[in-house]
Amino acid sequence: MATFTYQARDTAGKVVSGQVEAADEAAAALQLVSRDLIVTTLKAGGAAKPAAKRRQGKVKSQDLVVFTRQLATMMDAGLPLVQTLTTLEEQTTSKTFKPILKQVTARVESGEPFSVALAEHPKVFNRLFISMVEAGETGGLLAEILDRVASYLEATARLKKKVKSAMSYPVIVCCIAIIIALFLILKIIPIFADIFKDFGAKLPAPTQALISLSNFLREYFIGFVVVVVVLGFVFVKLKNTKKGTAIWDRLILKLPVFGMLIHKIAMSRFARTFSALVRSGVPILETLRIVGQSSGNTVVEEAVTVTAASIERGENLAASMAQHKIFPVMMVRMVAAGEQTGKVDVMLEKISDFYDEEIEATLNGLTSLIEPLLIVFLGVVVGSIVVCMFLPIFKLNEVVQF
Questions:
Q1: How far is Cα 146 from Cα 143, in angstroms, rounded to an integer?
Q2: Confidence class of residue 229 from pLDDT cuts 50, 70 and 90?
Q3: Residues 6+ away with beta carbon under 8 Å from 151
């Protein structure tokens, strides 16, 4: 198969261009004529294809969610796939997403399956997305499957938004506390230190310690920042290694309160992804491989991998999952009931909805609890510094030498 670059006019007289793959030039021309295009130029060559890949960058998750929902709606309304893709490519405002959609449209126009065209952009369309689309094409239910993909992406995006929203407040307050503390230590404490020098007596231990800290940070502030940045960089690098990720994922699951929340998020993602893939007709072993890779936690991924191996040996899903503590007893029992009734996908979807409600309740409780704790934390940090500075004044008769 060779790639041909063409320029043509459609039935409305509009100039269109792109690429087609065909055995020879005559086959390429015939392919374009079958699309009601009047060919003006046609030449061999596919230089534009690598360029499109180079332009591929990070696409926002929100852009992907909107694209999938619009694609599902338009296809459900009966619009052809190529027309739908062309319309969405023209409508998108994302400079990163537009060239990717343009290339996908060109490949579908040339006769490639939609799933194959999507697979050229694994950073944008993950394995789950591609597998579900492929299942939809095979079963002739692409519009219905795309609707499920859109619903899955929307539910995942809602969950991420809730978690980020709940975590943003404490992060902001902690950053404000650090900034205020650094300002007091670097700018205000030196002024008090100069005043206390004239007292000519030994200062209280807390005050002296704070002044020493202030002097240290003022003298070595740049070095201190460099050390913190380097340590942070080293930590991130170690965490991103295979062994580091495994250790980190195990540690965060053991954290009080937050470990339970992270576990619920992982189980919700597992159940929702599993349900969406099984309902779309993806084979069980392929489903487990995709679910493991998209779980976001190596502990879950390892458990899923072992579960897949057990199923390959002939065991049922519930019994295989029961061998791993990471899967809650309730989930195992509901999966067992789903296997008996032939509705595993329905049970898993209900589990996912249940965990989503649990996550929301936990986040609301944490937010209500964190707010007063953060106010206390901010008060303790700033208040401790202020008290340490005024402590010599409270004991003026002891520290002033006449």
A1: 5
A2: very high
A3: 276
Compute φ and ψ for 310, nearest 5 degrees. Answer: -65, -40
- Please, what's the largest Cα pairwise distance for the chain? 107
* 222: CB partners within 8 A, 6+ apart: none
Return d(Cα 169, Cα 379) in angstroms, integer: 16
Q: In whole angstroms, what is the distance from residue 340 CA to residue 402 CA?
A: 91
What amino acid is encoded at 179 in this protein? Answer: I
Strands (E), 54-97: none
Q: What is the pLDDT of residue 402?
A: 47
139 vs 267: which has the higher pLDDT: 267
Would strands 38-44 and 15-22 be described as parallel, antiparallel, or unpaired? Answer: unpaired
Residue-wise pLDDT for 130-145, tens only, equals 888 887 787 677 888 8
Question: How many contiguous H segments (helices) and E segments (strands) does the chain have?
Answer: 18, 3
**Spatial contact of 43 and 29, defined as CB atoms under 8 Å apart:** no
Partners of residue 327 on adjacent β-strands = none
Question: Look-up: residue for tokens 């309160």?
Answer: 257
Lowest mean pLDDT among 135-139, 219-223, 227-231: 135-139
- Looking at residue 235, its amino acid is F
Question: Per-residue DSSP letters for 352-388?
Answer: HHHHHHHHHHHHHHHHHHHHHHHHHHHHHHHHHHHHH
Q: Are 305 and 324 in contact (CB under 8 A)?
A: no
